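Fresh eyes needed here. I'd like your take on this protein's tokenised backbone:
***
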Amino acid sequence: MVGPYIFRPVFGSVDFAILGLSLPGIWYVSGILFLAHGILIVLFGAIRSSLSFRFVQDRYGFVGALLVVYAMVIYPIVGFLTGFIYPRYPVFGIAPCPVTIFTFGLLQWLDKKTSILVAIIPFLWAMLGFMPVLVYSIWADVVLFLSGVIGLPLILMRNRKLP
């Protein structure tokens, strides 16, 4: 059975409620956070040159590859298999959940130590990852939550390893 979730290109006017708590306009807040994250990526990547990515055949590289493939390929397949089809399902490139999974995948490929600020906003979004699972039955977002739980500690460990 498909949940009540109807994907809309503009979320700002949609009221979101979970566990009896109403969060009107939450999508505006998340939009601002993603804009802030984009600014952080430009700041640390282009201005400070501290974001550099390289695939290495180690645990970070493989976790990153799994997350990237999941976000781009497996996420929409899980949606289809659970009864959702586009445009009633968030897909990579236009919805924050698969993009956050993809972001954690790329952050596993960092080959320079970088500020933890780059991972904070995706981590916050990932921690909210069970809300779509519980409220809208978007089962693909279980991996969103796991990407934050696994991804952030791996980034911290890799930061300690890198010069």
The longest helix spans residues 59-81. The chain is about 60% helix and 5% strand. Residues 15-161 form one domain.
